[in-house]
Amino acid sequence: MAHNSVEFEDFLPLMAEKLGEEGLMEELCNGFRLLMDPRRKLITFESLKRHAALLGLEGLRDDELRGMLREGDLDGDGALSEMEFCVLMVRLSPELMEQSRPLLDEAFRQAIGGGL
């Protein structure tokens, strides 16, 4: 099975530099809310497909959109929670990933109640 990746310009490091950590997290949360299904409070395939044009992804096939969801779906429920979306966005940015690893580790610990 061939793995298709979506090419994109990595703006997250620039956003982080301009907005700071809190501002970047706020923007990621805004992006999540824009894409999520308002009833489920998750990004579902349907909500991602409906809003793909907002991300410049209107040319992607259904299987490519599903692949994006699978890549970020840590709990296997077929959708992205806010935490999964933020982790995916940072993971897709190699430069930002290095800078934010301690922040992500702390956020993950808080999200799972402090016990690893």
TrEMBL record:
Keywords: Calcium. Pfam families: EF-hand_8. Residues 60-95 form the EF-hand domain. InterPro entries: EF-hand-dom_pair, EF_Hand_1_Ca_BS, EF_hand_dom, KIC/PBP1/KRP1. It comes from the Eukaryota. The keyword Calcium applies. One of its GO terms (molecular function) is calcium ion binding. SUPFAM superfamilies: EF-hand. This is Calcium-binding protein KIC-like. The lineage of its organism: Eukaryota, Viridiplantae, Streptophyta, Embryophyta, Tracheophyta.
